[in-house]
Amino acid sequence: MDIENMKAFNKVAELKSISAAASELHHLQSNMSNKIKNIEKQFQTQLFFRHSSGVELTQNGEKLYHQFQKMILLWEETTAIITNKEETILLGIPQTSFPTQFNDIIKDFYTQFPNKKLSIVSGTTNELIHKVVNRELTIAYVTELENEQLLQDKQVISEMLSQDKLVFAGKTKGISLQKILTEERLYVFSKQCYSYRALASLMKDLNVETASISEINIAETLFEICKNELGIGIIPESIALKYHFLTYETLPDEYAKLRKTLIYHTDHPISSAEKWLIEKSKPAFQR
């Protein structure tokens, strides 16, 4: 079995389209169709269900896809070892959002890919997007406000992983929104982050100009302040739940909605090692 045929099969499975896979791999669609037919002939089983909008893996196709994934990874790893080719993956993650389970993923990564390097950079969403656009990062996980268009007209491919929402962390129950904004000391992780932009937008729409806003980029410190009723934090609900801080109220809907997204440059071909890392780390960043 030719390794390129395996890659072609897996690309069709991932894109659920023979024509889309042919276009991405720069093959003629007829050649791609023949590759699939020859693989089905070799294994004497149907591997795809064909329908008007594309293709779907059959049960045997699903099994073969996972086997081919392993074989492609092994082949690329073998090639890298023999040619002494070293790949460095530059991964961007949001400030204050480093998942605790990611340490285990990193250990597994170096076990799986001993000749590859992983460099992790943290930053605000705007900083990470800028670094991906300028190819300073290979892939990045970012969080953005749903009503913003930060990725528009950028040279990035994005995949939404999950949604989140901003909350006021602290004792706010029974207190009016106007009073929170005018009388409470408010805290955000950074004045460059989405929390501050959402808060600024809310204040502008309510004609509030006197809010006291400070930066604290250490989650534990911010929660200690909120716990002792020394101020109110504006943070994602997922971070509040991560630290078991349950005293919070959601911001008004139009200012609260967040989306967590995986991004990489349009010209960057995702390697097998990167694909492995993405699939393993997705669940951690979806929370």
From TrEMBL:
InterPro entries referenced in this protein's UniProt entry, alphabetically: LysR_HTH_N (IPR000847), LysR_subst-bd (IPR005119), WH-like_DNA-bd_sf (IPR036388), WH_DNA-bd_sf (IPR036390)
SUPFAM superfamilies xrefs: Periplasmic binding protein-like II, Winged helix' DNA-binding domain
GO MF entries: DNA-binding transcription factor activity; transcription cis-regulatory region binding
Domain of life of the source: Bacteria
Domain HTH lysR-type, first and last residues per copy: 1-58
Transmembrane domains' residue ranges: none
Keywords for this protein: DNA-binding, Transcription, Transcription regulation
Record protein name field: LysR family transcriptional regulator
